[in-house]
Specification:
Mean pLDDT: 89
Oligomer: single chain
Largest sheet: 2 strands, antiparallel
Shape: elongated
């Protein structure tokens, strides 16, 4: 049963995500991630390593060994500063690889959430990872779209709270 609106909500705007090189699709914009999208991202991210925790663990170990401050080592790890970590290049390479792996997986998860809940309900993470079905560049752009929707949700919430105050 539909609600009896005093003011009818607008149809969601769409954004063309993509370009001539990777292809483009129109995606409805809501200014936030929808609840099922957030749940999907959360559920599918559960097994991923916590990069901050891993970085802190490595920074502590390297800082104790080298006498550098933990903050200095942490910054060097997160910025892939080979010069600052010249005595621990293997650790730096391993952490950089982990950051790339986790980042790629998160990108797949976010893009899949948007495609599945806004465009194609049967779409899977495996579909998103298949370059025969979707160009990897378009996956990255859809993931960026998801990030903007995440950030937009925060501003909508703040806008709503501000307008409800006397």
């Amino acid at each position: 049963m539909p609600l009896n609106y005093e003011i009818q909500p607008q149809e969601p705007k769409t954004e063309l995500v993509g370009n001539e090189e990777v292809g483009g699709i129109k995606i409805p914009c809501f200014g936030m991630l929808l609840e099922p999208e957030r749940n999907f991202i959360e559920e599918n991210s559960e097994g991923l390593p916590d990069l901050r925790q891993e970085c802190v663990r490595l920074a502590n170990a390297i800082a104790k060994e080298t006498g550098k401050s933990m903050q200095e080592v942490y910054d060097a790890l997160t910025n892939s500063d080979a010069q600052a970590l010249s005595s621990h290049l293997e650790t730096l390479v391993e952490f950089t690889n982990l950051m790339q792996k986790v980042g790629s997986k998160r990108q797949l998860i976010k893009a899949t959430a948007i495609i599945r809940f806004r465009l194609e309900p049967e779409w899977t993470i495996e579909d998103t990872a298949n370059p025969k079905l979707i160009h990897p560049g378009l996956v990255r752009l859809i993931s960026n779209f998801a990030q903007r929707e995440t950030e937009g949700g925060t501003s909508l919430l703040l806008e709503s709270e501000a307008s409800s105050k006397p």
